[in-house]
Structure formats: C-alpha cells, structure tokens
C-alpha cells in the first residue's frame, strides 16, 4: 500500500506541475490586464515538444544529453519520497538532507549542460545558477532545521506528522522567520521574480533560460516539465511543512482523498499568490541578489537559534 501511495503521489505531482505553471501565468496575465492562456496550455506545449526530435550542438558531449533525464529523475524521486499527500514514502524516510541534495544534483546537471554547449550564454547562465545555488541550498536546510530542532528529526514525514498532530510542539513565533526564508529560497531555486524572470529572454538578465537555450524537442520538454515539477515540489513543501493540515497520516481512502484535495488547494493558493507577487515586484539587479539571499539565510539562522532556545 505504501508503494502504491508513493508512486501515486509522484504521478499526481507530475500531472499537476504543468497546471501549476499554467495557473501562475494565467493569474499574472489577468492582473496585468491581459487575457492570458488556459491553465492546460503548458501541457499542450509539452505534447508538441515531445513529438519533435531533439538537436544537440556540435561541441556538446554526454553531459548535455544526460542533463534533462537527470533533472526530471531527481525531481520525481523527491516527489515519491517527500510527504505531500501522505506522511509515508517509498523509502520509509524522506530525509531533509537527501531531498535538498537531489534538488541540488538536478541543478548541477543542468549547469554542466550549460557549460557543455560551449556558448557564452550557457556559461553565463551556469555561473549565475551555481552562485545562486551556493546561497540557496544552505537556506533550504536551515529553514527546515528550525522545525526539525523541535521534532528531533530531519525526516520530513516526521516533521509534517508532528505539525499535523501536535502543532504547539513544533511551531513557535520563530517559525514565521523560517517560513519567510523558505519562501525566498523557493523563489530563487525556481528562478522566479525578483531573482530571475521566467518570461524574459533578455541575455543580460537570464539565468535559467540561458542554460536551456540550446535545447529543443523532447529534451526541452523534459527540462520544462522538470522545472514545473520543482516549482510544485517546493511550493508543496512550503505548504505542508508550515501548514500541514489535511495531510493524510493514515492510509485510508478518505484520508488520502482529503490529503490530495488539501495539497492541490494549498499549492494552487501559493501559486496564485506567487503570480500576484510577481506583478507587484520588480526583478533585482544580479549584484543585489546575493544580498537578498544572504538576508534569507540570516532569517533561517535566527529561526534555528530561536527554536533551539525556546525548545
């Protein structure tokens, strides 16, 4: 039963991810006074790309070809292991360090692919991506450590279970600092405003788009699908870690149905809030991004210290 739930959870996230991306685009378009596209448009784009054969630069090697499958596979592994619908996983334990490591592995694979193309844009995007990742990953770890200190475990399922069953023992006023730090880290990890603008192709500001300029066809479809999946994963972790209500703690049909509905509602709400924030915010200059991420790291560190003192 646990295996089926874990695999079903991964299928849910894989199917839901393009709709989450479509929701952010639709909300942003409406707030900007445009008609926008339908929620399912990213799925239509993926189907179109999957029918086309990929092409590779003449100087590219195995890194360029392997990066899209690695990026998607690491995202799917996180979708299987982490507690999104239920607090169970295929491996029996979704350790925080393993989850963050899998996300970093996908980012490194894409950065190596950007370097492997031998183009100026690819190298520029890879350099910027690794600079951001070096600041984001510690923030991801510390923001969840603020909760794990209270629980006594880095197992994400244990943290979510404790938060759902006994919130007073997990959440403190310092948890708001950790939630803010994780929210900023999510924006940076997914290449959203104010760190990056996913809707622009201006070469002086690109980060993620600069690394994938040489991809086409099925390879580009895998990259875009994995990017949407990573956004859904991080929004789901943010929702379930700090608002774990509705997550199934028992593998019964009713509990799983409630967990699925709660997860879709929470991720949809966060995606709409993200899109609204992007309309109101402006992209930061590249040299100001480390200041923002350093601030988020400071928030996460203060949250850990406060949680340890209050505990």
What does this structure look like?
The chain is an all-alpha fold and 311 residues long. The chain has one domain. Helices cover 71% and strands 0% of the residues. The chain is built from twelve helices and no strands. Helix 3 (62-81) runs antiparallel to helix 4 (96-116), helix 5 (120-151) runs parallel beside helix 12 and helix 10 packs across helix 11. The longest helix has 32 residues, at 120-151. The protein is globular, with a radius of gyration of 19 Å. The chain starts with a helix and ends with a helix.
The percent range for helix content is over 70%
Q: What structural class do you assign from the helix and strand content?
A: mainly alpha
Summarize model confidence as the mean pLDDT: 92
In the predicted model, the low-confidence regions spanning at least 5 consecutive residues are: none
Order of helices and strands: HHHHHHHHHHHH
Approximately how much beta-strand content do the residues carry?
under 5%
Give a quick set of tags describing it.
311 residues; mainly alpha; 12 helices; 0% strand
Provide a brief overview of the structure:
With 311 residues, this protein is an all-alpha fold. The protein has 12 helices and no strands. The two termini are 36 Å apart.
């Amino acid at each position: 039963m646990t295996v089926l739930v874990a695999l079903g959870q991964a299928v849910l996230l894989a199917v839901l991810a393009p709709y989450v991306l479509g929701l952010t685009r639709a909300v942003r378009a409406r707030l900007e006074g445009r008609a926008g596209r339908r929620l399912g448009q990213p799925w239509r784009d993926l189907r179109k790309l999957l029918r086309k054969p990929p092409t590779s630069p003449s100087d590219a090697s195995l890194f360029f070809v392997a990066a899209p499958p690695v990026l998607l596979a690491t995202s799917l592994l996180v979708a299987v292991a982490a507690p999104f619908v239920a607090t169970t996983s295929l491996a029996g334990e979704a350790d925080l360090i393993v989850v963050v490591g899998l996300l970093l592995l996908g980012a490194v694979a894409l950065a190596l692919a950007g370097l492997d193309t031998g183009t100026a844009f690819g190298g520029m995007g890879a350099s910027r991506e690794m600079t951001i990742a070096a600041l984001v990953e510690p923030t991801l770890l510390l923001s969840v450590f603020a909760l794990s200190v209270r629980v006594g475990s880095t197992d994400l399922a244990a943290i979510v279970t404790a938060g759902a069953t006994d919130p007073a023992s997990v959440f403190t006023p310092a948890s708001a600092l950790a939630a803010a730090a994780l929210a900023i880290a999510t924006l940076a990890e997914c290449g959203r405003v104010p760190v990056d603008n996913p809707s622009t192709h201006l070469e002086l500001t690109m980060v993620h788009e600069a690394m994938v300029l040489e991809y086409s066809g099925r390879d580009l479809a895998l990259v875009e699908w994995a990017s949407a999946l990573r956004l859904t994963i991080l929004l789901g972790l943010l929702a379930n870690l700090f608002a774990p209500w509705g997550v199934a703690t028992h593998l019964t049909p009713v509990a799983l149905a409630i967990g699925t509905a709660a997860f879709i509602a929470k991720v949809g709400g966060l995606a709409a809030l993200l899109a609204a924030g992007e309309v109101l915010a402006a992209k930061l200059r590249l040299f100001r991004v480390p200041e923002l991420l350093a601030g988020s790291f400071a928030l996460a560190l203060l949250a850990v210290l406060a949680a340890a003192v209050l505990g």
